[in-house]
Amino acid sequence: MTEKILFVDDDPKILTSVRRLLEGHFELHTAGGGTEGLQVLQDKGPFAVIVSDIKMPGMDGLAFLAKSRDISPESVRMVLTGYANLENAVDAVNSGYVFRFLAKPCSGENLHNAIDEALGQYTMLRDRAEMQTLRRLKDAMEGIITGFVNLVEARDPYTAGHQRSVTLLSVAIAESMGLDADRIRGLRFAASVHDIGKVYVPAEFLNRPGKLTDVEFAIIKTHPKVGFDILDPVDFPWPVSTIVHQHHERLDGTGYPLGLSGEDILLEARIMAVADVVDAISSHRPYRPGHGVAVALEEIRDNAGTHFDPAVVEACLHLFSDEKFTLDFKAGEGPSCEWLRCT
Ligand SMILES: [Fe+2]
Ligand SMILES: [Fe+2]
Asked: Which of 89, 255, 281, 289 has its CA 20 to 30 A from that of 38?
């Protein structure tokens, strides 16, 4: 896209020669004075670069450039004047809103160079502003997802902290298996919301002690698909919805909801399946006390190669035996979890 440039000068001959020099290279607009210049900014903006003479009848150039900031704050401003003196140069520079001060006569080459530099400055400032906006959006999105996580866990106090534990263990397994940093970022995100689909499961099923009926269990088993439906419309840079969809699949095809097997299940989902089972068996549930980590590790060891990916199981066992990994911490304690902003 050609960027727009506004030239303001009360001398028609200057505007004619600027048109001859710049037309075809930029989208050029001109104005014969400050008031007309403000009108052009209003009607035809946004402009990347504004170049103004200083000494003009009515509103002078510095006053025009100062007012132009209200209408077009992102524009890069320059002065082109035949009446340069130290005082107005100092004023312009000290004001902080004039990027370059050019003296007439200004050769075509100098003018081109100055405009190129101003455009470079404009692009840099615009990119920086976009980065700030993206950062704010990212913070807002993380806040919304964290709110969702808290909502799901508030309805289901027995699994409060479960997603956090699964996140920590999944990330530790992925790191020890050598997954690259970006893939781990996606896994961290998916693990931290993996049971989000439980938001559709009636809270009384989740919280009541005693065995679930087949119907109740069938409803709970919908949560990976519900989670997928919630997350799939969001354009994440990672396959978050697919990982969540597959976290109860089993290597031999006996899992749910799709009955996928082997490498049809994403590695991230195979990692999360192990972390999920280890935390679920270790922790207290409404219908039984926690069995402890030793029983959980025995379960994954016994089912390596059938339910669980053997390489993932090996990495997990190694973490608990050699690296003294622990899930034995209360909310707010334990290893740090950058995404969930907890320590
Ligand atoms: Fe789950
Ligand atoms: Fe889970």
From this structure: 89
Residue 216: name the closest of 226, 228, 204 by CA.
Answer: 204
**Residue 276 CA to ligand 1 centre (angstroms):** 7
Provide the CATH number for the domain around residue 192: 1.10.3210.10
Tally of structural domains, the chain: 2
Q: Give the count of beta carbons closer than 10 Å to the beta carbon of residue 45.
A: 16
* pTM reported for the whole predicted model: 0.65
Are the beta carbons of 168 and 334 closer than 8 angstroms?
yes
193 CA distance to ligand 1 middle (Å): 10
- Tell me the ligand closest to 227's alpha carbon: 1
Strands 100-103 and 4-8: unpaired
Please check whether residues 234 and 287 belong to one and the same domain.
yes
Q: Which long-range contacts (C-beta less than 8 Å, at least 24 apart) are formed by 240-246?
A: 240/186, 240/189, 240/190, 240/193, 242/266, 242/269, 243/186, 243/187, 243/190, 243/191, 243/194, 243/268, 243/269, 243/272, 244/190, 244/193, 244/194, 244/196, 244/197, 245/269, 246/273
Claim to verify: residue 123 and residue 191 sit in the same structural domain:
no
What residues does the ion ligand 2 have nearby, CB within 5 Å?
A: 195, 276
Task: Please tell me whether residues 112 and 28 are part of one structural domain.
Answer: yes
State which residues form the domain around 273: 156-321
Which tens digits make up the pLDDT trace of 256-308? Answer: 999 999 999 999 999 999 999 999 888 766 666 677 888 899 999 999 999 99
In the set 13, 55, 67, 198, the catalytic residue is 198
pLDDT, the chain, mean:
86
